[in-house]
Structures are given as structure tokens and as C-alpha cells.
Amino acid sequence: MWIFLNDKFVDRKEAVVSVFDHGYLYGDGIYETLRAYAGRIFMLQQHLARLRRSGRLIGLDLPIPEKDWPALLSAAISRNGLTDAYLRITISRGEGEIGLDPALCPRPTAVILAKPFAPYPSHLFQDGVSLAILQVRRNLSAALSPQIKSLNFLNNILAKQEATRARAFDGIMLNAEGHLTECTISNLFFVRGGRLCTPSVECGILDGITREVVLLLARENGVPIEEGRYKAEALQQAEECFLTNTTMEIMPVREINNTPVGSGRPGPLTLKLQELFRRNLSRFLE
Questions:
Q1: DSSP H helical ranges for the chain
Q2: What is the pLDDT of residues 130-149, one digit of tens each?
Q3: What is the average pLDDT score of the chain?
Q4: Confidence (pLDDT) at 60
Q5: Dihedral (CA of 264, 266, 268, 269) sign
Q6: Which residues contact 244 (CB under 8 A, 6 or more apart)?
Q7: DSSP classification of residue 148
Q8: pLDDT digits (tens, 9 = 90+) for 73-129
Q9: Can you say how many angstroms the Cα of residue 284 is from the centroid of all Cα atoms in its chain?
Q10: Quick check: 90 and 31 in contact, CB under 8 A?
Q11: What are phi and psi of 51, to 5 degrees?
Q12: Burial label, 32 (beta-carbon count in 10 A; 0-12, 13-18, 19+)
């Protein structure tokens, strides 16, 4: 396995990061997860723009010029003999003396991983997944902006642990005001009264890139959309529910807190959007 580390590709055994790296010590860094279909990357420019935004929001300059990213990501895919691939970009503050001051780190650490894409089991898309509404709350936006894809993922890890204890595929986090936000690694959609609903960015969510594509496809096909603030009780009236992210695309939800959503099967709008996503996928590949 070949991994890009700082300025060159190295064998996995040589891909070593210092124990003094502030990404390791403090979770001080950012990342992006991408997906390649037959060697072409989904929403590449949008992912890179979000990476730059994350860097800007924590005062971290990306160590790789903007123009070089597409070639490096393509090289990561081809060097590993891949076509359908999972890619992860990780940029940490870099190696430095112990202490919180970013000035202690003269140079960021940059890593690009490319692995064979491992799809979710097909039965999850056919049957849907179970969710739990969690006690772990989403980070306050005023404390840590959800617009930063940060290496410090402890909020989501604690939420995932709670979902696992509840024997759920994943969990829905509420914000401090008790409004729906998102799951640990995905955005949340539900259908109510024939309208496609999703928590607004102002609720404290990451503006997911697959979320953006689903909203675009829905608008193009005349589906009524509502982005708003919803209490957990709104899901009790949901006719359908699904999750979105780069690796799962559109994942149906069959039950929440052990209560079926609608018929307990993927609903007609969920299936329609899955089909629209597949049919239009080539538009979003680069």
C-alpha cells in the first residue's frame, strides 16, 4: 500500500507520524473523506473547497498547492491499483513541542490514504437501518463550529458508543436546544406530508456534500423541500427517513428507537432519490 506523506509516496511501513505531532497530541487538524468510482472522484472540487474552509477556520494553511491536489489524489488511486476507492486526506498542525500554541509547529503534516472501497452490505439498502435518538448532544456551534471537519472526533465517538449500546446502526444527535442535527457520520433526511425535510445548517450540522447533491436532485425533480429546526417528535410523523454521506450515498432508515418509520421499509421518495442519484452520478464525478 502506497501512502502520500508530506511530499512523497511511501510504503505503508514507512508512513510514520511523530508522537509529537499535534494531530496525535491534541486532535489539532482537519480531514476529508472522498470516494472514487472507476477512478473518478465524487464532487472533488467541493471536497477540496471544504478542506480549505476547515483549514481557514482553524488558521491552518494547507501545505499542498491547490492545483496539485487532483493529480496527487489520482496518483494515490493508480499507485495502489485501484478504481473504486476510499480516499482520506488528513492535514494536522504538524510536529512541535508540547503545548497548544500552533506556532510551535513549523510545518503541517499531510497524508493521503487510498484503499479499496468496501461497500455497505446490500441488505442495509434493501431493508433499511435502525437509529436511536441519543442523549449525547452535538457540540455547541459557538464552541466548535461544525463547519470544521476536525480530527477531534470525540463528540461523535461518544455518540457512536451510545448508539452501539442501543444496538442501533447509528444515532441521531440533538443540539443544546433539543433540535435534530445529524448522525455520527451522516446527514439526516425525513419525509413528512410528502415534503423532504432536513435539519438546517443553523442547527449545528456539517453541510454534507452528498446532502447538497440530494437537495439539488430533489429541486430539479419538483420535490418539495424544507430545511428547518425540528424537535425529535417530528420523526414520529415521518413517512420515510434516510441518511446521506459520501460512502453510503443514500441509506434508508427502517426504524427509530425501535419504532418503524412509515411502513418499516424504504419509502417511494427514498427509492426515487436513490435512482436519481445513480442516474446522475456521472455529473458529479471528476
A1: 22-26, 44-57, 69-79, 122-127, 154-165, 209-220, 268-280
A2: 999 999 999 999 999 999 99
A3: 97
A4: 98
A5: positive
A6: 186, 187, 189, 208, 210, 211, 214, 250, 251
A7: S
A8: 999 999 999 999 999 999 999 999 999 999 999 999 999 999 999 999 999 999 999
A9: 17
A10: yes
A11: -60, -45
A12: buried
* Beta strands 129-133; 170-174: pairing state: parallel
Which of 64, 49, 58, 62 is closest to 26 using CA atoms? 58
252: region left, alpha or beta (phi > 0 left; psi from -120 to 50 alpha): beta
Domains defined along the chain, listed by start: 2-116 (3.30.470.10), 122-281 (3.20.10.10)
The set of cell numbers assigned to 51 is 478542506
For the chain, give the percent of residues with pLDDT over 70.
Answer: 100
Which grid coordinates are listed for 233?
A: 417528535
SS3 for 285? strand
- Which pTM value belongs to this model? 0.95
Q: 21 with 14: CB under 8 angstroms?
A: no
Q: What is the pLDDT at residue 240?
A: 98
Task: List CB contacts of 44: < 8 A, sequence separation 6 or more.
Answer: 34, 70, 73, 286
User: Using the 8-state DSSP alphabet, how is residue 232 labeled?
Assistant: G
Question: What per-residue confidence (pLDDT) applies to 162?
Answer: 98
- State residue 90's pLDDT score: 98
**Could you tell me what percentage of the chain is helix, strand and coil, using 3-state DSSP and rounding each to the nearest 5?**
35, 30, 35
115 flagged as catalytic: no
Q: Spot the catalytic one: 13, 67, 149, 272.
A: 149
